[in-house]
Design a protein that fits this description.
Elements lengths: L5 E2 L4 E2 L4 E5 L4 E5 L7 E2 L7 H8 L3 H11 L4 H4 L5 E2 H19 L16 E8 L4 E8 L2 H14 L3 E4 L6 E4 L14 H15 L1
Parallel strand pairs: 1-8
Antiparallel strand pairs: 2-5, 3-4, 4-6, 7-8, 9-10
Helix pairs in contact: 1-2, 1-4, 1-5, 4-5
Length: about 200
């Protein structure tokens, strides 16, 4: 099976955190500290797009996401500007709808789709593990990186499922470690679901 491209992405967040700021025209998420006081974020794990889709479709959810993972755009990294909440929530909601469509095995709404252009640089890198060349994607912003993660998840041949116990989206089938007909994101949730079902039947 072909390997997924590496997502080569470096980002940072304000150690002093972020806040919601309302104006007549918009609501923004603005950093509390000055520019150039950032600390590097942890490398992307591959799960951030699911967290984004699950939480950032509301103003408070968007703020919570930025507190944990940093600003979504270059404007968000600038203390004089900030991330537009409407942009964040629109993208999170679109991703959420697409994941729900995929989990239900139905075509997305015609009004859905990726609502923005993804900006990234594409290069080839040497992978010492496989001793071969691989594609490397370098997204321009965290928002771009989240859409690249999403694209990899939904186009690599695996099935997107919604866990019957917790509702979390997960991948099943080819290359995922979960059977194609899996109904739960983990074995623990399968056991918990069946245990709860038995206790309700008593």
């Amino acid at each position: 099976m072909a390997q997924l491209p590496v997502i080569d992405f470096a980002w940072a967040r304000d150690p002093k955190g972020y806040r919601l700021v309302d104006s007549e025209l918009s609501t923004r998420i603005v950093r509390n500290g000055p520019n150039r006081s950032d600390i590097p974020c942890r490398p992307l794990s591959g799960e951030e797009f699911r967290i984004f889709a699950r939480t950032a479709y509301t103003s408070n959810g968007a703020l919570e996401f930025v507190q944990s993972f940093g600003p979504l755009t270059w404007s968000g990294a600038d203390a004089t500007q900030g991330d537009l909440v409407a942009l964040i929530t629109m993208n999170a909601d679109a991703m959420r709808q697409l994941l729900n469509s995929a989990a239900q095995g139905r075509e997305p709404d015609a009004r859905g789709g990726i609502p923005r252009i993804i900006t990234l640089r594409v290069t080839m890198v040497w992978d010492p593990t496989t001793k071969s060349l691989r594609w490397s994607f370098s997204p321009d912003t965290l928002l771009d990186a989240l859409w690249v993660q999403f694209g990899q998840a939904v186009t690599r041949g695996a099935q997107i499922r919604s866990c019957q116990h917790c509702g979390t989206w997960f991948e099943a089938g080819i290359g995922t470690g979960r059977r194609a007909d899996a109904k739960f994101c983990t074995d623990e949730h399968r056991i918990a679901f069946n245990s709860l079902k038995r206790s309700k039947g008593k």
